[in-house]
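Example 3.2
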Amino acid sequence: MEDLKIITMRDIEAEAVDWLWKPYLPLGKISIVQGDPGDGKTTMMLAVAAAVTMGGVLPGGGTTVPASVIFQTAEDGLADTIKPRLEQLGADCGRVYVIDESETALSLADERIEQAIIKMNARLFILDPLQAYLGGADMHSAGGIRPLMKSLGAIAERTGCAIVTIGHLNKKGGKAQYRGLGSIDIFAAARSVLTIGKIDVDENMRALVHNKSNLAPPGVPLAFGLDPAGGFTWLGEYDISIDELLAGRSNSPAESRLGQTMQFIKDELAAGEVASSEMMDRAAGAGIPKMTLDRAKQTLGVKSVKRQNQWFWSLKEGQDIQGIHAGNLNILNTLPGEQTAIVSEDGQDFPVTSLTIFPAAEAG
């Protein structure tokens, strides 16, 4: 019989949570990205991976130090799908690694996972999809799944790496925590769960909802675009609940706060450009929160122009201007022949290289 060992909490040193992307992806923990096939799960995580390799900006304004990523996939070809997407997304492919499975298939219980993370000093490890790496275990059985997820969680904790598993949704419906494919123990083992889905506003738009967050308040829902012409773009905060996302719909634009604010902006700018300060005063007078005003401005593609130390808003009919929101920045894809502009209404100047506009990538 083994000797009984007891630990007192007095001897445990408290530690703060470290983040790869706060509050969506914690370091040293398991996170899940889930959604239906074709909704952009893989593409979104490749965009995150690209940002990690380049020390790029992620929604919310947070930046990362350039770091290595391990991307393990059983669904997409490395040569004809994954690498082209990474290149299109601006990744440093010299920092993206794959464990060679040509001789032996990888599973969650495989010691090569930890060995690879340590050897490459990886900050992000992605498994796509989770069900391909169960090593024959029944993903619907708690007895089969629980020890595998416990082992994976221990690897994340020992290495300090953010481990992300990508999974599909089932067709059962019901509560969000039961929509992931497989045992509820998969959902339970994750400290963060991000659900991705299509929204009815635009066939090329997707929404990300942070529907489980054990280590911090949930992050705000985000939208991103998969437009073949405009490419992969983060579109900023989006007003949608997890129930609406799973139902394949968003708030009706005519009824939602966002829709009402979009109409407000259209009305105010119908006669031409208006000073930014004046627009903010008018919105405040109409009881519109600044956050909602910013989201509506971005969604509409309102152009910010600075002249003589003053900012103006304009929305010209026929313009196809798409804004990407990151912190206080709006990056605008301008019209053909115009130079890409990075503008900030707080008076600061930023170099073009400080943020990346990602080109097109197929949904995964």
